[in-house]
UniProtKB/TrEMBL annotation, chain A:
The keyword Lyase applies. Keywords: Lyase. The keyword Lyase applies. It comes from Lysinibacillus macroides. This is Amidohydrolase-related domain-containing protein. Residues 7-348 form the Amidohydrolase-related domain. One of its GO terms (cellular component) is cytoplasm.
UniProtKB/TrEMBL annotation, chain B:
Keywords: 2Fe-2S, Iron, Iron-sulfur, Metal-binding. Residues 4-127 form the Rieske domain. This is Rieske domain-containing protein. PROSITE patterns: RIESKE. CDD domains: Rieske. It holds the Pfam family Rieske. It comes from the Bacteria. GO terms for molecular function: 2 iron, 2 sulfur cluster binding; metal ion binding; monooxygenase activity; oxidoreductase activity, acting on paired donors, with incorporation or reduction of molecular oxygen. It comes from Lysinibacillus macroides. The keyword Iron applies.
Length: 366, 129
């Protein structure tokens, strides 16, 4: 089976060095900036795939040509949605965090979306700092008209669930410019952010498994706080937060709603209706249990046909290969998941890649 | 099964590996502290080039919370998601009976077409496919 043309909704471009990203961060913040992920919850085995090509001493996934050739061309990826990782929302120094966003956005637009994007296959995310929603709204205004910026993104780590009204300035801008609002895991329970679990996980395995609890909290907050009534055109993208937990949580919310509606009377619809209308979810890391049928039942329950979009997480360690996901989901979901839903969401025109034969993978049939 | 001559014994030192393609099959040949092993260069999980991963040991519990790092040099970790495999038989550590990659037979022989007397210098490593 040949891979269809794919829209990959989660690719992580990196600066080639700390100096490169520093040169885009406004002074005087540039002088104090150091690139940090987060100390305690780092992957202890390997942060990224070890077989990814690098040029010289550059950081991994920092060369647009290599990402294009090794990932996009190899797997027939028509468009790649780029989500830079800056971990700003854990930073106690709000102005610093805002300026890191400016630096990352300018770097992404310059290096990835303009200089090295001849075919227009890289699409970008406007990184904002949710700790300062007013500044975040300004930053969206500044970048929204860039032709290759297709969404707004934040880390899932936060001091408050994203349904709270303090975040409205961000959603106003998302609606104004018709940009989805994407959450990506990271900075949960780190720096100034609250822990999304009971206390602090001891190990990375505990931390990483429970990242979905932060997503549960955000999703239930969006719905019960009435965000989708106030911003009916807002689309929220839950990136890398897991998939199969969603139906049970919404079932539970639905059951509660029947009795407790009076607490949240601005909720006009049932939870699943908001979900299918306003929320999209990405695949990786797809939970694939020994009995795939169990997961397929969940996919059906969350209307995966209209809500689920393929993501690889290139070049991180928990990368999902497109052919593996094709083998893991039911056949009728392949087109919607691999391109149709993302194409509608990000309004991406059909691009015939017309790759030469040797570049597109031939796969064993299912 | 057919034997394929790969290299002279002295060309694969302890801790070294060679990535081979034999009859269209990608295989990794390893010298694990003097034992030669060959396994399929494809991870049973998602098909990553397994034999490009790091060779390490593994952490186990000695008693209660006391840990021990054992079998250094005998465990291969997939370069993608980091699953651990026993280099000596291709079995995964987390589920050795059900999750494994194919191991091929490896022998050390003199090259049958050469007529020199057998000494260690002209012994070769053969992988059997
Ligand atoms: S592909 Fe090897 S561990 Fe996933």
């Amino acid at each position: 089976m040949k891979l269809p043309q794919i829209i990959d909704t989660d690719i992580h471009p990196m600066p080639k060095s700390e100096d490169e990203i520093k040169s885009y961060i406004p002074m005087p913040y540039r002088r104090r900036y150091t690139f940090d992920s987060y100390k305690y919850y780092s992957q202890p085995v390997q942060e990224s795939r070890l077989d990814v090509k690098i040029s010289g001493n550059d950081w991994i996934a920092s060369n647009p040509d290599i990402v294009m050739e090794e990932h996009m061309d190899r797997y027939n990826v028509e468009y790649g949605i780029l989500l830079p990782r800056a971990f700003v929302s854990s930073n106690p120094f709000i102005d610093m965090a805002n300026n890191i966003c400016i630096g990352f956005n300018d770097w992404l637009m310059d290096k990835w979306l303009e200089k090295n994007n001849k075919q227009g296959r890289f699409k970008g995310s406007i990184l904002v700092n949710p700790q300062d929603p007013i500044a975040a709204a300004k930053e969206i205004e500044r970048c929204a008209n860039h032709p290759h910026m297709v969404q707004v993104m934040v880390d899932s780590g936060s001091r408050a669930p994203f349904g709270h009204r303090q975040f409205y300035p961000i959603y106003e801008m998302c609606e104004k410019y018709d940009l989805p609002f994407a959450l990506h895991p990271g900075t949960d329970g780190v720096g100034i952010n609250d822990s999304n679990t009971l206390g602090y996980p001891a190990s990375f395995i505990e931390y990483h498994t429970l990242l979905c609890t932060g997503y549960m909290s955000h999703l239930v907050s969006f719905i019960t706080e009435g965000v989708f009534e106030r911003f009916p055109r807002l689309k929220v993208v839950l990136v890398e937060g897991g998939v199969s937990w969603i139906p049970p949580v919404l079932w539970r919310l639905d059951a509660e709603y029947k009795a407790l509606r009076e607490e949240v009377p601005w909720m006009k619809k049932r939870p699943f209706e908001y979900f299918t209308e306003n929320v999209r979810v990405t695949t990786q890391p797809l939970e694939v249990p020994d009995n795939k049928q169990h997961m397929w039942t969940m996919l059906e329950a969350l209307d995966a046909q209209n809500t689920l979009m393929f993501s690889s997480d290139y070049s991180h360690w928990d990368f999902d290969a497109p052919d593996y996901i094709m083998r893991s989901i039911p056949k009728h979901l392949i087109d919607p998941v691999f391109s149709e839903t993302a194409r509608r969401l990000y309004k991406l025109p059909n691009k015939d890649l017309n790759l030469e034969g040797e570049k597109s993978e031939t796969l064993q049939s299912l | 099964m057919k034997p394929y001559k790969v290299c002279k014994v002295e060309d694969l030192k302890s801790g070294e590996r060679k990535l081979l393609t034999i009859e269209g099959r990608n295989i990794g040949l390893f010298n694990v502290k003097g034992k030669y092993t060959a396994i399929k260069n494809s991870c049973p999980h998602q098909g990553a080039p397994l034999c490009e991963g790091r060779v390490e040991g593994m952490t186990v519990v000695k008693k209660n919370r006391e840990l021990e790092y054992i079998r250094d040099g005998e465990i291969l970790r997939c370069p993608w998601h980091g699953w651990e495999f026993d280099l000596l038989n291709g079995n995964s550590i987390f589920n050795p009976l059900k999750c494994r990659t194919k191991a091929y037979k490896v022998t050390i022989e003199k090259d049958p077409v050469e007529t020199y007397p057998v000494t260690i210098e002209n012994e070769y490593i053969f992988v059997h496919i």
